[in-house]
Amino acid sequence: MATYAGLYGLLALGLNLIWGMGGMINLGLVGFFALGAYVSALAALKLGAPMILGLCLAAIAAAAAGWLMALTTARLRGDYLAIITLGFSEVVRLVASNEIWLTRGTDGISGIPGPWRGRLTPEQFNLVYLALVVAALAVVVAMLELLRRSPYGRVLRAIRDDEQVAEVAGKPVRAFKVEAFALSAAVLGLAGGLYAHYTSFIAPDAFVPLVTIYVVLALTAGGTGNNWGAVLGACLVVFFLESTRFATAWLPGLQPVQVAAVREFIIGASLILVLRFRPAGLLPERLPRMPMSLTSTPSPESR
Question: What DSSP designation does 255 have?
């Protein structure tokens, strides 16, 4: 559960960069997630690449796909951008389902190597992989926090709040959008690579749009625009997903399909309650303070 919470945390951080800071809606998260998973898995199995190289290739491939998509959709906003990104995720899933020569289709890819898999007990492997995911999560959070507090992050927030004002101020809005989209996709691809090496099996059915919905809920409940809120929201969503497995066992006489529906209802109702009492999320965004040299009023002599 903790490992999956870390993976969801990476997905929420990637979404927070593009949506929480840049104001661009991306409903194709699971597409970049799947792309990273397949690239890392194929690099390990077809090329014999070590896991660290596979993860780097996953991030690079996802970043390249995000760069191309942002370059072609830079002028789209709101619902139009959301529809395009959602279509991209479905294209990735359909390609993975039909290109059997590469992805083995719906049979999936199995035997993906993990660190010391087979030489460790399952419990030891889970602990080792949890440490790896936490380390990756910590590095990504640190990098995004530095970006958020930097002038680059201030420009992204300016674009989010009013794109035209940022453009009038002389900022290359389109370039910032493309770069932010590519960086966000790289984080999503890294999460996909980590997922593939952890489960040792991936198939198109694992990359359904419901994953995107869970990540959007995680970021919304945790606090849009806040990196720590994204991580907290991911932990909250995973907690609801797993704890409801036991809660539905208390309801006798239900069919498996009904139990699944009750789980979704409990998850949705719990998150609605969170947002009802914390509309801005559990950890609302707090803008970093400007340096004193930028906020101080110049003296009459300096004028």
Answer: -
3-state secondary structure of 110: strand
SS3 117: strand
| Cβ 52 vs Cβ 44: under 8 Å | no
Token representation of residue 40: 């890392």
Lowest mean pLDDT among 26-40, 128-142, 157-171: 157-171
What is the number of other CB atoms lying within 10 angstroms of the CB of residue 117? 16
Beta bridge partners of 110: 201
Three-state DSSP class for residue 215: helix
Residue 74: helix, strand or coil by DSSP? Answer: coil
pLDDT score recorded for residue 302: 45
Q: Tell me, what's the pLDDT at 31?
A: 94
**From the DSSP assignment, how many helices (H) and strands (E) are in the chain?**
13, 2
Q: What is the pLDDT of residues 247-266, one digit of tens each?
A: 666 777 777 777 778 878 88
Residues 38 and 108 sit within 8 Å (Cβ to Cβ): no
Distance CA 230, CA 179 (A): 21
| pTM score of the predicted model | 0.89
Residue 287: CB atoms within 10 A of its CB come to: 11
- ∠ at Cα 183 (165, 231), nearest 5°? 95
